[in-house]
Amino acid sequence: MLPKKVRGKLYIGFEDPYMTGQAMAVAGLLCPIYKNALQVYPDFENQILEGELFIKGRVRLSSAAALAFHLFRNRKFRKLLKKLLKD
């Protein structure tokens, strides 16, 4: 289910510069996956999430159904989903 091609630019920033740094740390860990196809630019002063993204690939119905089945069987996921829907 992973995309075959990913290209784009993403500008990201949070109210707290610490959170922006954390997001950039995660983006750095994912760098070997998307290589140079996705460029992530931090903004430590403003809260922002914008960019352009192109994703190409295939999603098989059986794979998506199996993923959904495993998620809904997970008790922690159901609790999180109820909490999110409640708010």
Largest sheet: 3 strands, mixed
Strand order, sheet with most strands: 2-1-3
Q: What share of the residues lie within helices?
A: 40-55%
Global outline = flat
Q: From the alpha carbons, calculate the radius of gyration and give it in angstroms.
A: 16 Å
Could you characterize what this model shows?
The protein has 87 residues and is an alpha+beta fold. The chain contains four helices and three strands, in the order βααββαα. The chain has a three-stranded mixed β-sheet, with helices on one face. The longest helix is centred in the N-terminal third of the chain and has 13 residues, at 17-29. The model has no long low-confidence stretch (mean pLDDT 88).
Give me the secondary-structure topology.
Elements: E1 5-13, H1 17-29, H2 31-34, E2 38-42, E3 48-56, H3 61-73, H4 75-86
Parallel strand pairs: 1-2
Antiparallel strand pairs: 1-3
Short description:
The chain is of the alpha+beta class and 87 residues long.
Give short descriptive properties of this protein.
87 residues; alpha+beta; 3-stranded mixed beta sheet; 48% helix; flat
